Amino acid sequence: MKTSDFYYDLPEELIAQTPVEPRDSSRMLVMDRKTGALEHKHFYDIIDYLNEGDCLILNDSRVLPARIYGVKEGTGANVEFLLLKHIESKRWETLVKPGKKARTGAKFVFGDGLMKCTVIDVTEDGNRIVDFECDGNFYEKLDRLGQMPLPPYIHEKLKDKERYQTVYSRELGSAAAPTAGLHFTKELLSKVEQKGVKIGFVTLHVGLGTFRPVKVDDVTAHKMHSEHYELPEKTARLINETKNRGGRVISVGTTSCRTLETVAKKEGCIKESEGWTDIFIYPGFKFEVLDGLITNFHLPESTLIMLVSAFADFDMVMNAYQTAVKEKYRFFSFGDAMFIL
After folding, report:
1. What is the CA radius of gyration of the chain?
2. Model confidence at 209, in pLDDT bands (50, 70, 90)?
3. Can you list the domains of the chain with their CATH numbers?
4. Which pTM does this prediction carry?
5. Largest Cα–Cα distance of the chain, in whole Å?
6. 305 Cβ partners below 8 Å, 6+ apart?
7. What are the pLDDT digits (tens) for 37-84?
8. Which of 113, 125, 277, 337 holds its CA 20 to 30 A away from the CA of 87?
């Protein structure tokens, strides 16, 4: 398939700039992947589509306030650092703007000396490997200094940092939110459990590569970025018990989906697993775990819309997107939801 096959025309005013309140009042487009039939609902209606014996798998990764601003020692030049990937100790792979200010050996200061860093290497794609220095806990200092790394298509300032976190986030490490989970409130999750639906957690730390455009014409030639995942034994047991009982395994988000399908392919079954995944899911992919997918509306020609088009029929998905545009759904990270069953 060609990348251009996944293009759709999206008016800029449909790109959500702020989250809705309350979280579960967002709209939800429900699609039957057997027939392509569509229903227009709100996210709180999801309870009506879940059955006793099903399980929801959520990604509990928490977003780092990973954008920090500093000055270069000696010149006082202003520089922005975006933390991309933790390497070891206080060493990180970062994206630096402007990059010409951050050659190997350059030193920077943040928050009037609250934190410092030294550039120790430059990667092939221009990212900087940086060693940070600070007294005490690095993450506490980062929380004081950092801002949420909102996607480039969001131009409004976020008033409350927690609105770019899911209500169940706990494992710090993502550079972007697993946004399908932003629609859940604690009260809605409680109702889900009261209906007899089990909830399990995986961790996949979302990298900024999730926003990286596909630059090749042939989809199969695209190389995915790598992200760290963990699937705990408790969640593996829940998934296997659900399948054995005839229940459905429903993934909340593409990140949970990628974790489950990675483990199934790597291990040959669902079991406790940890590692790095660069799995690329596009039409023709054979799903081994998923029975349902809760997701947001994704960028044209992105790997995420390709994943959704693999789980459901390509033509049905593209029709659903055209319908969502026509019905003025809100798109991307702070946008509305899609539930594919």
Report:
1. 20
2. confident
3. 3-63+160-340 (3.40.1780.10), 67-145 (2.40.10.240)
4. 0.91
5. 66
6. 6, 298, 299, 317, 321
7. 999 999 999 999 999 999 999 999 999 999 999 999 999 999 999 998
8. 113
Query: How far is Cα 315 from Cα 25, in angstroms, rounded to an integer?
Result: 28
Q: Judging by DSSP bridges, how do beta strands 128-133 and 171-174 pair with one another?
A: unpaired
8 A C-beta contact, residue 274 and residue 229: yes
Amino acid letter at 262?
Answer: T
For 90-133, what is each residue's pLDDT tens digit? Answer: 999 999 999 999 999 999 999 999 999 999 999 998 999 999 99
Cβ proximity of 56 and 197 under 8 Å: yes
Nearest to 318 by CA among 328, 308, 303, 327: 308
- Conformation bin of residue 25: beta by default, left when phi > 0, alpha when psi is -120 to 50: alpha
Spatial contact of 6 and 303, defined as CB atoms under 8 Å apart: no
Convert the pLDDT of each residue in 35-49 to its tens digit.
999 999 999 999 999
Identify which of 62, 59, 68 has the alpha carbon closest to the alpha carbon of residue 114.
68
